[in-house]
Amino acid sequence: MDSSGEVKYIAIEGVIGSGKTTLARKLRDKLNAELILEQFEANPFLEKFYMDRKRFAFQTQMFFLINRYKQQEILNQGNLFTEYTVCDYIFDKDRIFAYLNLSGEELKLYESIFPLLARNLRKPDLVVFLQSGLDRLMYNIKMRGRKIERGITRSYIEELSEAYNHFFFRYSDTPLIILNSTDIDFVNNEQDFEELYKQIFRKDRGVTEYFKPEARKSGLTDA
């Protein structure tokens, strides 16, 4: 799809703690859209992975790969009751984690499976990548206090941030908005949210857009 096409399927992406799920929910409410959320809490290996990445990387990765595929496959069937779909991840991001955490024969096995699953899945009409500073990400992770995330280290989030930036600065599969979300509050500041909303549906939006509303003094979100 080119940037001038209709936007019906929006995917929000970003590092853990960037606020992608919160933004996805706000867009769902605004558009009365179908909402698809990543089911991270269903992964029985995830908490162990944060404690011992090397030991539990492959199990964690393969569970997410299959689970994400099952969710995304539903999109191919369409929805008769909603015009819009909002998702808080893209299937292709699975590879970011695979290349960060797998190596050797495990990565080869993963790469033999991933293309078979990815080739028939629907692509978003637009991806919004939430880019955020490391301090902000760690603060948000700490404030939400999820038990499953207690083992997340600053060094892992730093590695993940670098991997996400590398991926999205070279991303060309769909139209893309890169949003620096460190100093804005699209959750509590309706002006920030409305500016982003208008950017998503702007008719003259480019294939890749860098979007940063002017920071305001109304306070930042913990989301």
Rg estimate, integer Å: 17 Å
In CATH, the homologous superfamily goes by the name P-loop containing nucleotide triphosphate hydrolases
Q: Order of strands side by side in the largest beta sheet? A: 2-3-1-4-5-6
Order of helices and strands: EHEHHEHHEHHEHE
Beta percentage is 5-15%
Let me know the number of strands.
6
Q: Indicate the structural class.
A: alpha/beta
Unreliable segments of 5+ consecutive residues: 217-223
Mean residue pLDDT = 89
**CATH fold topology:** Rossmann fold
Shape: globular
CATH C-level:
Alpha Beta
The N- to C-terminal Cα distance equals 31 Å
> How much helical structure, as a percent, in the residues?
40-55%
Blueprint (SSEs and pairs):
Elements lengths: L8 E6 L5 H12 L2 E3 L9 H6 L1 H23 L9 E3 L6 H8 L2 H15 L7 E6 L2 H11 L9 H15 L7 E5 L9 H11 L7 E4 L12
Parallel strand pairs: 1-3, 1-4, 2-3, 4-5, 5-6
